[in-house]
Known about the structure:
The structure holds 2 protein chains of 2 kinds.
Chain A: H1 3-7, E1 14-16, H2 18-39, H3 44-61, H4 71-90, H5 99-102
Helix pairs in contact in A: 2-3, 2-4, 3-4
Chain B: H1 7-16, H2 21-24, H3 31-39, H4 67-78, E1 80-81, E2 86-87, H5 97-106, E3 110-111, E4 120-125, E5 130-145, E6 151-162, E7 172-180, E8 187-189, H6 202-205, H7 208-212
Antiparallel strand pairs in B: 1-2, 3-8, 4-5, 4-8, 5-6, 6-7
Amino acid sequence: MNAVAANGVFQPLRGDTAGEFERAVAHFGKRLRRAAEKVAHGNLDLAEDLYQVAITQLWEHDPSRFDDDDEAYLWTSMVNRMLMARRDNEQGDPTRPPLALRFR
Amino acid sequence: MTRPLSPAFLITAALALVDDAAAVDGAPRGLPAALACRYRNSPSDATTSVAADPATSVAVSPMAGWSATFVHHAGYWSHFDYRMEASIWPLPATSSCEELATFAAENFVLADDEPNPGDVYLLWSPAKKRFVRAGIILGLTRRHVYPSGRIGYECLTVDADTTLRGSLRGASTAIIRRMLSPDAGDRWIRWPLLDRGVWEQPRFAESPRRTAA
């Protein structure tokens, strides 16, 4: 009798890619907040909005499909998204839909 | 008569290869570890007796990982017919997700609609601009529309070469809740459509009785 059978009931190993997202948020979080404050030129309310926009971008990208080598790609993507959001904010149209929706 | 291509066979075989949660928590590894070694063989041990097994002789390149090798292992043995001493698994024996995608596209079975249970998914990496992982879809649980308008499908999958967080590379084989999105470049291989039917299989088309007559 092997060890698995002797130990009792087999429970399959289960996981969730949400864990990888949480890890990415923890990894980028502080740096991203600092970057958001710089992009917002010290406007803390706008910085918080930009941070949320960047985190949403990270969630959409799904960090489970990236490894450590791809950190620069994710970072650039999030910063670009913040810059786009700031530009939309400056153009005075906060209800403007995200870029992907404008071309659908 | 040979057995048909069936997603049920593949799912059953893949689920049998999922690691034991208790073993991962630190208990001594038994059967799952031994089974895992069969399809994790690296090119360096290709000369050992394990390599004589056609399902396990797929060389694992460090770049590609062994997720596609696992899919082949599960597919090969789930469709193995002991009477014929052969498997009718239609996908090529490879550890390369790109090769799987090319084969599927050439045979018109690379899909981007709603995933079906048993489909082999290919995960696209926008950073690397290639497919980086393959796995088996157990089922679709939810359909998401992202703020950008992208559509995603939350699926349960059987993944090898991963961790509990569904990472790109890892030591475990597990059931993972994962978001797949055709808009992000992901695709799935609807391999049951490759079933050629009994009349088209070489063994039956070239029957010795027909040539004698």
